[in-house]
Amino acid sequence: MSSADWPALFAEAKGLLDAGDSGAASRLITDIPSSLDSPETAAIRDRIYRALIPNWHYSMMNDQVRNAAFLRAFRAVGIAGKHVLEIGTGAGLLAMMLARENPASLVSCEASPVLFDMANRVIGENGLAGAVRTINKPSSALQVGVDLAQRVDVVVAEIVDSVLVGEGILPSVRDARARLLQSGGRIIPCAMTLYAAPFSSDLIYRDSFVEQNPDFKLSAFNEFASRVHRPLVFGIHPHKILGDSARLFSIDLQANDLGPFSGDAEIRITAEGPLHGYVLWFELELAPGIVVSNPPEEIYSHWGQAVSMVESGGTVKPGQIIRIGFDVGDQNFLLKP
């Protein structure tokens, strides 16, 4: 392929991207060096890669607290001599950490073709290609006797977002427990808990809703405002926590049925101020006693936090009790203030 072919390939890639096929678009341009991009092709390349690979992958790999905690969990569970399945290869970092713990076998599956190819490259560049068997399938498509020699002893599934469930950990672990994990096998993480606390923040609120305008009525535009949570590094924004934190739910990934559920919680208000929303964070127990978390003031966790906003922004006062509800689906979470 000559450089003369590149503009046509990028034009075709843009057409595929516009049609929603970012995977096929990526495969067209993979072998074209980014150092030779024009402003136009660089913009197309970035659109393709951002559609496939969110920027949080970089901060995730750089999150040394998270990485060290997973290594401690691997050693606490005891990977050596065991058959291991990792769900979600990503860049291959956890797979390589697992490989160095000398499992009897290690399979890592990745649904994204682009990430699958990159993970193989990264794993190969670290001399571990022979220690990790990567499979370009979601875990739900794996079969014992085809992809796995037998049910595994350990399932590793670091597929959580800032509210835990958005990357599909519940259906993935539910299916793995039923078909891929042997009786008595271990799951990393083993449990997880989501928390919420009410807050006031003029800056976050202004990024979420149109405020009153002295000259024009603009509130109709708030019809477009998000009614679900959004990820955010909460601690870098000026804010005031208005009440106690509430535990919304705790899930034992080893034992609970992991189906969709609903619930509610009470929060006691401890400070006066406009209630602009709720900050959400979690505790992820990787193995007994080994926990990673992203509390509201933690600004270096790659997960950040999430906020669920309240449009009315009414004032609350100490002593008030507020009840909030929530729904948890297979890959969705909805807070209902």
Write a brief caption for the model.
With 337 residues, the chain is an alpha+beta fold. The protein has nine helices and 17 strands. The model has no long low-confidence stretch (mean pLDDT 94).
Topology:
Blueprint: H1 6-18, H2 22-29, H3 39-52, H4 56-61, H5 64-77, E1 83-87, H6 93-99, E2 105-109, H7 113-125, E3 133-135, E4 152-156, H8 169-179, E5 181-188, E6 191-200, H9 202-206, E7 230-232, E8 240-241, E9 246-252, E10 261-268, E11 273-274, E12 277-287, E13 290-293, E14 305-309, E15 315-316, E16 321-328, E17 333-336
Parallel strand pairs: 1-2, 1-4, 2-3, 4-5
Antiparallel strand pairs: 6-8, 6-9, 6-12, 7-14, 10-16, 11-15, 12-13, 12-14, 16-17
Look at the helices and sheets and give the structural class: alpha+beta
Percent range for β-strand residues: 25-35%
Largest beta-sheet characterization: 7 strands, antiparallel
- Report mean pLDDT, rounded to a whole number: 94
Proportion of helical residues: 25-40%
Give the topology string: H per helix, E per strand: HHHHHEHEHEEHEEHEEEEEEEEEEE
Distance between the termini: 57 Å
Estimated radius of gyration:
23 Å
How would you describe what is shown here?
The protein is α+β, with helices and mostly antiparallel strands and 337 residues long. It is 27% helix and 27% strand. It contains nine helices and 17 strands. The chain has helices spanning 6-18, 22-29, 39-52, 56-61, 64-77, 93-99, 113-125, 169-179, 202-206; strands at 83-87, 105-109, 133-135, 152-156, 181-188, 191-200, 230-232, 240-241, 246-252, 261-268, 273-274, 277-287, 290-293, 305-309, 315-316, 321-328, 333-336. The chain starts with 5 loop residues before the first helix and ends with a strand. The mean pLDDT is 94.
